[in-house]
Amino acid sequence: MYIGIAGMFPKDITQIDKSVVDRVREAGFTGVSCRFSDPENISVSQLEYIKNTLIEGGVRPVQSITHYESIVSSNDKQRSEGIRVMQFMCALTRRLGADNLYIRPGSMSPTGDWYAHPLNRHPSTYERLVDSLKQISAAAETEGILLAIEGHVLSPLYNGEVIKTAIQDVGSNTLRFNMDPVNFIGDIPESFDTTSVINKLFDLLGEYTICGHAKDFFIQDKLVVHLEETIIGEGILDQHTFVKRFEEFCPDGHILIEHLPDEDIPKAKSAIDSVAKDLGITWLQ
Questions:
Q1: According to the model, what pLDDT value does residue 160 have?
Q2: Residue 125: what are its φ and ψ, rounded to 5°?
Q3: pLDDT on residue 11
Q4: What is the predicted pLDDT for the residue at 39?
Q5: Is there a contact between 222 and 212 (Cβ–Cβ < 8 Å)?
Q6: Cα separation values, 178 from 150, 191, 210, Å
Q7: pTM, 2 dp
Q8: Would you state the torsion angle of the CA atoms of residues 203, 130, 255, 46, taken in this order, to the nearest 10 degrees?
């Protein structure tokens, strides 16, 4: 498997240059997450420059990602706009040559795609999500790209069973899964038994997994449950089981370190390098 980074890039990927790509490669990463802040206004020449700069620097565009309106919204206009942008991103992903297009399931919360809402687990929300994913998957099939859906305990895709059912209900070979175990730690017992959480996710979704996000977390000392992300190796996630099972199901895929400021990335990289070494795994180049 490969090790990559969702970071070390400017927020607008059109601002990258050779020096940025060289810095990523020198840090030991072979792939990146490519975030587009305004994808519909990127010229053909800009996109070709991004693609060529990455390739020439030995860094693969692993995931393309952008902001879009919630695809579970009960507002038809808003949901349609989210679907339209993601259909457009399917074409951009193909032209970029990225491994996959990252998809958030969205939320019924008006404050953000990853925030809790009482309707996130309502059957009507699930039905809208499946319908939206069918429309996006149709565009992905036309463009010949893969989609990487992610879930979270706060989202409509709140556990492995629901995600597997959704993938099967959509019924498209283009729709796959982005493995991120930290997103599925929902309570204290799970926090102290992340091995079981990780194994269950891979047992259910390993066959669909095409990419992964590497993170860590800890339990804050507060009087209600507070789980906070931290640098890999400084938390309590079973990283060995995560890396081992990822290699089992996705030996040619990328694990991307994410959600860290640039100054903390070397420490996280060193920690996951040690995990791979313990397991006898050498990152592919």
A1: 98
A2: -65, -45
A3: 84
A4: 95
A5: no
A6: 5, 20, 6
A7: 0.96
A8: 160
pLDDT in the model for residue 148: 98
| Gyration radius (Cα) of the chain, Å | 18
What is the structure's pLDDT at 107? 98
Q: Which of 259, 160, 268, 252 is nearest to 213 (CA)?
A: 259
Asked whether the beta carbons of 66 and 39 are under 8 A apart, the reply is: yes
**HSE (CB half, 13 Å, CA atoms) of 88?**
15
- pLDDT at position 209: 98
181 within 8 A of 194, measured Cβ to Cβ = yes
Q: How high is the pLDDT of residue 264?
A: 97
- Residue stretches of the chain with pLDDT short of 70: none
Ordered by where they begin, the domains of the chain are: 2-278 (3.20.20.150)
What is the secondary structure of 77-119 as a DSSP string? HHHHHHHHHHHHHHHHHHHHT-SEEEE----S-TT-TTS--TT
pLDDT of residue 123: 98
Q: What is the DSSP string of the chain?
A: -EEEEE-SS-SSGGG--HHHHHHHHHTT--EEEEEESSGGG--HHHHHHHHHHHHHTT-EEEEEEE----TT-S-HHHHHHHHHHHHHHHHHHHHHT-SEEEE----S-TT-TTS--TTTTSHHHHHHHHHHHHHHHHHHHHHT-EEEE---TTSSS-SHHHHHHHHHHHT-TTEEEEE-GGGG--SHHHHT-HHHHHHHHHHHHGGGEEEEEE-EEEE-SSSS--EEEE-TTSS-S-HHHHHHHHHHH-TTSEEEEES--GGGHHHHHHHHHHHHHHTT-----
